[in-house]
Design brief:
By secondary structure, this protein is an all-alpha fold. The protein has twelve helices and no strands.
Amino acid sequence: MTHPSFAVADLDRAVSAGVIDRATADQLAAFLSQGQDSAASPDSEDEQFRLVSGFGDIFVAIGLVLFLGALFFLTLDENLLLPAVATAVASWGMAELFTRMRRQALPSILLLVAFAATVFIAAAKVIDGGDSTALTSGFGEAATVAGAGLITCAAVALHWWRFRVPVTVAAACAAGSAAVVGLLETALPGVMTGFGGLIFLPLGVAVFLLAMRFDTSDRERRTRRTDIAFWLHALAAPMVVHPVMQNIMRDETPGAGAAGLTFVVFAILGFVALTVDRRAMLVSSLVYLGYAIYSILQAGNALPSTSFVV
């Protein structure tokens, strides 16, 4: 046991010199150890968000955005395959320095996002043939989206094996969700048009349950698992909230019933967010609640009937 001011050897010498007795030394050692553990560990009731480990992270992040953006556009040719591959390779290479060696939080997140996004673009272009100059070409076919999502999952898994960036698990879930959506649309053409919310909602719930598994495995929120859970909650929140709110607000002129349901859903999601002590669900609920109130109040014929509820 060590402490900034004391060590076991110091206490032993104090006992030998007759300054304190052994019982007092043992009690003091236990007290100092407890105080050190409390100071070194975050409060388990607080939701920790490790984004910036120092002001230098901000400058590095700005530099990375400028460099990767310039690289993407300088390599831009008739399609997006070359710039996507170049940016993905550069993102991995710089992660060796800023993630694996320097352990900088914000640059690591940006590099992972850039890597995953450009791998998805490159995979989609390869599957599509890469012979079109249209920016969105290769993303319209459901099979292309499914294939690109699966390839991105594999690439992100490799990135996780190498760098262990907490947001990587959420990126893999996002790519996996894209793959599931693409596969369903391929098997059942038009299913996303009519039942998109019913597909994204269970996917969001699955991500939320995965986040809770990481949370329950680190109840004191001291390890990397709590960071992984944070990003999974951030991904799950819009996937759960948006389909629900979109279904409530599907009418062009929502009335008092829609306003009431919006508040009920907000209360339920807020209760869940406070129960699991994760604010992502609550933040998403607030965003959609504000939009719902705005939409209701903007509808002239809905204002008299909803003013009391709002």
